[in-house]
Amino acid sequence: MNTDTGRATADDPSAFARPAARETPPAPPVRVRLALPTDAPAIAAVHQASRQATMPYLPPQRRTHEEVTRWIREIVLPQSHTLVAIRGTELLGYASLQGELLEQLYLRPDVRRASIGSLLLAEARRHRPDGLYLHVFQLNTGARAFYAHHGFRVVAVNDGSANMENLPDLTLRWTPAPGPVPPRGTP
């Protein structure tokens, strides 16, 4: 350090040392578990935020958070196999299955494109190994690309008369690839 100028010099390399950066602890891993009734408010918040962020073509939401929470608690959870993705205590997204129908798969907007949707979808497939189908709005190009990437194919084109929003939609289906065929004569 040059004491006249207060500047670091090559004669004193320690003068160039930066203060040690604080290390941030790694984020807890994302886990998928079965949804609990106490998750209903967080699931409702994810549902509403995701629809607003990813589907701007939908009419403005008319349901309050309390109404959506009640729908999740009283209809979705009792009638569906609902999975949630969590990191620590944060609920990041959810998927809801009714038989082979993937009825819902929504993520918090701030965690999209972080493999959480893929994680939820993989768990849904594990629970329905014979295949899944779903409905997606034709305008939802992001979801359509996501499902196409994961092997879903269009099996029906619909005019929207069967959904509340009256928007054209598609029915997509995923069927697992057949396993290897054993050679002839193998027991």
Which structural traits does this protein have?
single chain, 187 residues, alpha+beta, Aminopeptidase, four-stranded antiparallel sheet, 4 helices, 27% helix, globular, acyltransferase, Bact_Acetyltransf, acyltransferase activity, transferring groups other than amino-acyl groups, Acyl_CoA_acyltransferase
Task: Outline the structure in words.
There is one protein chain. With 187 residues, this protein is α+β, with helices and mostly antiparallel strands. The protein has one domain (30-174): Aminopeptidase (3-Layer(aba) Sandwich), CATH 3.40.630. It contains 4 helices and 7 strands. The strands form 2 sheets. A 4-stranded antiparallel sheet has the order 1-2-3-4, with helices on both faces. It is globular. The termini are far apart. The model has no long low-confidence stretch (mean pLDDT 87).
Tally the helices: what do you get? 4
Strand order of the largest sheet: 1-2-3-4
Number of domains: 1
Shape: globular
Query: Which CATH-level-2 architecture?
Result: 3-Layer(aba) Sandwich
- First and last CA, distance: 81 Å
Task: Write the element-wise H/E pattern from the N-terminal end onward.
Answer: EHHEEEHEHEE
Question: Percent helix among the residues?
Answer: 25-40%
Category from helices, strands and their pairing: alpha+beta
Unreliable runs: none
InterPro entries: Acyl_CoA_acyltransferase, Bact_Acetyltransf, GNAT_dom
Biased composition (Low complexity): 15-24
Region (Disordered): 1-28
GO molecular function: acyltransferase activity, transferring groups other than amino-acyl groups
